[in-house]
Amino acid sequence: MSNELQRQLPPRDTRGDFSFPENNALDAGYGLTEATIDYISDAKGEPDWLREFRKTALRKFREMPMPMHWAPQEIAGLDFERIRYYLAQTTAPQRRWEDVPDEVKRTFERLGVPEQERAFLAGVDAQYDSETAYNNMRAELSAKGVIFTNSTEALTRHEAIFRPWFGKVIPMGDNKFSALNHAAFSGGSFIYVPKGVKLAQPLQAYFRINSESLGQFERTLIIADEGAELMYMEGCTAPKYDTATLHSGVVELVALPGAKIQYVTVQNWAQNVYNLVIQRGLAMEGAQIRWIDCNIGSGVTMKYPAVLLRGAHARGEVVSISIARDGQLQDTGARMIHAAPHTSSNIVAKSISIGKGRASYRGEVNVLPGMDNCRNHTECDALLLQSHSRTDTYPAITVHGDSSAVQHEASVSQVDEEMLFYMQQRGLTRAQAMSLAVNGFINDLVNEFPMEYSVELRRLIDLEMEDSVG
Amino acid sequence: MSLIIRNLHARVKDGAEILRGVDLELPAGEVHAVMGPNGSGKSTLSKVLCGHPDYEVTEGSAELDGQDLFAMSVDERSRAGLFLAFQYPAEVPGVSNANFLRAAMKARLPQGEEPDAVAFYKQLRARMQQLGMDAKMTARSVNEGFSGGEKKRNDVLQMLMLEPKYAILDETDSGLDVDALRIVSDGVNAMRAPFRSFLIITHYKRLLDYITPDVVHIFSSGRIVRTGGRDLVDYIEEHGFDFLKNEQ
Predict the structure, then answer these.
(1) Into how many domains does chain B fold?
(2) Do A424 and B90 touch (CB under 8 A)?
(3) How far apart are CA A195 and CA A258, in angstroms?
(4) In this structure, what CATH number is given to the domain that contains residue B222?
(5) pTM given for the model
């Protein structure tokens, strides 16, 4: 987006710490039982197979242990009984902003969503608590056969395309949280881009939590047919509450031969949010999947975008920025599974730990037996702002055969006092100097984000620095 | 209007005393040179005046245009008009020269105001041309991967842009070849004005051949031991600093 356009837009309320009184006609109450699932299925008018599917997932969820390779102590405090699993005003999304309920519309206006839609987006999906409040796409894309809707409509209106891939990239029993999402999912996006169709502008989803103690379980499936290309961006905010909120989405990407998918996340949840998200893409022959992931908010985030490289010459990439300040754990990383020969992957992860904040990198690179001539490059750099800030790196690299090349580089550094003195000597306050230093550290990665987001990211970093140093 | 330093004592935090009673008055419009052997505390003086966190003042005072310098933070001193061209300028990875300078200029404006972009770039290009710097340098990260000479020149560029009232040049001449020395000196000379002063810290005479000082101070063992005119420079050039030993 041009600078000119940038100036015309009103400033976005990127912190998102505001809320409207609850006005939910649909409320499944606290806790997750078969009755909760019946409530959700009834509200959505779901077929019996799906109701049973959800109940099977619920049983798996109850049986499965917490994932131990995540950070178990940090999620031990999460009480599934004190979460509300479904809250909505209506189940059907609106296609025009003027039809969206007033406080919901005002929320998204305050977050700048309608302006962005007009300015540079191909389509918008705006989720408020459990359901999509607004969903719309430019008419010329519908004419080309592009589908952009939510998971509920995908099941009722596009079942033939949706169902064969639903739960195939991330199966129900993958881990406890995928089972949870399969049981309680609502909202999220379904996108299908037909063969050879290339979207020039991004599709945007906006996830908003308004109500206290909500569990938001959006379910996204994106299918790019052969040679198709798209960029999808998601943003998230929530007001700060004293009680825990859970966000546990499942995102599945399918890039058929020669397709390209870029998936951009800017996560800025409030600090009472547990952000436990599973993102995985399947890349067939010659396809490319790129996760661009930025985690600024939430109390605990555990998220390791993955690419399963299933076809020869497929490419997977993760570009990750995380910022952890006091009270935050950003446990992020990437997984690259080379399940075909001649596949390549690239991981660049940068984290910033402020005060007692803690950022961890957890990575898995796995070249399966018989998969020759695979390549991976991993680089993770951590910046510690204070001497008591913390970072951890847990790389797991498995390579079968001897024709593949895997590189892992890692660095940990502190903001250099001489550099800060230099900048302060030029008149910058300590906070301004820190902010520039941090921006400089992640500058090359921020440039990977769409313009609108990189501007927002820099502004968020400035705010963080003002708060932590000023 | 002047920078007045009285009986300044300072040490490395919890360490040895390095400045042992410096007295110096730098009136507006004058150029003073500070010469002295290695390790005499010349660079420490510049860092202490600018508020480097490694040092603490144990005694004495410094006033900048009547304001207590040591009551001000590092950045307040800068915005009050004190500039240091570093002996070893720091690198700021990922921050372009242009963005860094804009941030520094913005810091001098009332909150919320931005420097005018067109005027800024016009001025920046003119100053870079004056210093013989490649226009591409605006997009390069501050001092990252620069040669020693390029870093020094970049510091002088910042000085030209920020237009300080009091500029300290700490061994700016070291690392510069003859051509660069002339260009940098021309830049300093062009800035000389009745409202601006320079404190030029140097080991060698050659910079002072280009920038003529009004007053020359000889620094030794943490204080000024002799003050005189230009002829003092020639005396040092001829006899070195050995004479100081006899005086102690």
Answers:
(1) 1
(2) no
(3) 10
(4) 3.40.50.300
(5) 0.85
